[in-house]
Amino acid sequence: MVHRHILLGLMMSLLWVSAEAKDYPASLFGIRSDGTDLNTRSIQFAIDYISGQGGGRLVFSVGHYLTGSIYLKSNVTIHLEEGAVLMGSLNPLDYDRKIFMAMIFAYDQQNIGITGKGIIDGQGREVAANVSELVHKGLINDPFRNDRPVETNRPMIINFRNCHQVRISGITLRNSACWVETYDQCTNLTLDSIHVDSKAFWNNDGADIVDCDSVCVMNSFFDVADDGICLKSHDASKYCNHFLIRDNTIRSSANGIKFGTASYGGFTNIHILHNVVYDTYRSALALEAVDGGFLTNIVVDSLRAENTGNALFLRVGERVAGKKSRMDSISISHVYVEVPASKPDAGYPYEGPVEDQPRNISPASIVGMADAPIEGVTLSDVEIHYPGGGNTYIAKVGLDELDKVPERPTAYPDYSMFKELPAWGLYIRHVRGLTIKGLKLICAKKDYRPAIVAQDLQGESFQDIDVEDPDHKASNIVIKR
Fold this sequence. Notes:
The protein has three helices and 34 strands.
């Protein structure tokens, strides 16, 4: 059952939008729809005026509206009618910087929104190229790692911080120069029926939700070059709390749904229901507590993933020396995943980088640390299809040498981080109280590895495990205490 506090928070977030609000057409303020005149100051004047009048909607009708950074104010909704396109300026100097750069800012505001059937286009590929040009001219300082400007020198589309009662619905967000949208320490946040299409450049996360409370992400579509829906915790004194993530479809050249990598505070009371992931390079679901925070009380139900590089990745690490992370009380049920032999995001504009080679196809994995084990994980009714075909000449790790799998507590977490793993279906290490109630692992071709390998596993309960293996190995479940 979905946590009652999540539903209460969602209901509260919807109340303000039902109240009657006055509409102000953009044309009233001389905002031009020709796609060439820069409207930054006139749009900002309109927002400030509407907020000063007690609130309302700034309505953009059919046309193309060019702007640099604008600041949304309390009780104001930007409404984009079908055919309206709010376009980011191509000049990087038209964007402001707070902690990050963005096209639309909102800090310390309440009752705000962006709605309608229109489009916000960051024109990110062109903006990023223009940032690079300014770097080469010496006008912007940038280390230019990996032959691209760092994230803080590229504007995202939406950056909201410490805002209350936020609704983003119906709109299309596309072509960001960096992360598409970031919501930091916001409460009563709803993303409903949005369409995110952002493969314009690197670091195009679909939605980064940081240390927020009472959040609903639903009925939305994400096709992005980086993580699809990504929960983060930047502040050790804050955490993500009371989330409902349901009925979304995600395509990513990184992970579909991910917690972390920043995990300094924590994540709790999260329900992830009825989501679909496809053509995704990394994991369909990645739960990562690696920076001293906690990850607890997570329910995942009805997740379907096709043509995805990895099914499930659960990881506890210690990237901050002396700060142990904690993961417990995780329920994952009704999951179906197909893992291909080939690169699942091949042909997309910004593919995930080929890394952590050589290795065979990686299994789903649940990996804690000896002094910080993962506890209380339940897998039920999970079915994963693998291509098989593991090659014994590629970095083989034998069952009598499991200690060759590195611990890597300080490494960046990702399903391929251990390189070769000794199982083709599920790898488990440093886990307490694992319950499996219905697990089906299917291997299309012969693989030299067994289906399941567990090391340092205690208090487990395995029921109804079905392995379809062309080799018909005598033992497909190997547990090393």
